[in-house]
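User: Hello! My lab partner asked me to get a predicted holo structure for this protein. The small molecule is zinc ion, SMILES included with the sequence. Please write out the structure tokens.
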Amino acid sequence: MKNAIFRTLFALVVATSASAQSSLDSALMRLKEGNKRFVEGKSIHPRQDISRIKETAKGQKPFAIIIGCSDSRVPNEIIFDQGLGDLFIVRTAGQVSTYASWGSVEFAEEVLGAKLIVVLGHTACGAVAAAVNVPKVPGHIVTLINAIKPAAERVKGMAGDAVENAVKENVRMQVEQLRALEPVLAERARKGEVRIVGAVYNLATGAVEWLPETDTAKK
Ligand SMILES: [Zn+2]
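Assistant: Hello! Below are the structure tokens for the protein in complex with zinc ion.
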């Protein structure tokens, strides 16, 4: 009897976990398909009409969280061909995150239920270029540069373009940072309840390149 109950419970846990994974897969697929439409000039501009305004006025349930750069050439809803209430977006130059950004991400994950988190860098990012070239910068810009410098240091001497290498490394480090962010995201990532992925948007083509996932918690 005990064994039967255990087996039922185990099956339930496996089923729940499998359905969580499949909804994460489909969230990622929605972004990939939307970007494909955008690149091919076949955007459908979904969920941007009056009825969607009325529907989302009652509440929001975004299916993904994007942590992206403030760059005016990377408007997230447009490049992923999504609509109102689809994406919860946190944007700072170089997608540098500190407490307010982390709190925003945790809010979207815990309260609004978005489980896919995308760190989205982009080619020729000015903030990353500044960190690579270490110029003297005025005011609070130094906060951004200091946060990106470790990525620029890590790829120093690597073959290829220094800025583009640093763009990718910056995204990778930001993904790692979120996966290790206690107490909320780290636990969710360990349990495989959230997926945190990195990507780089190409300013010249409009295409999003998805970086390989190295999340050990991912099923
Ligand atoms: Zn940028």
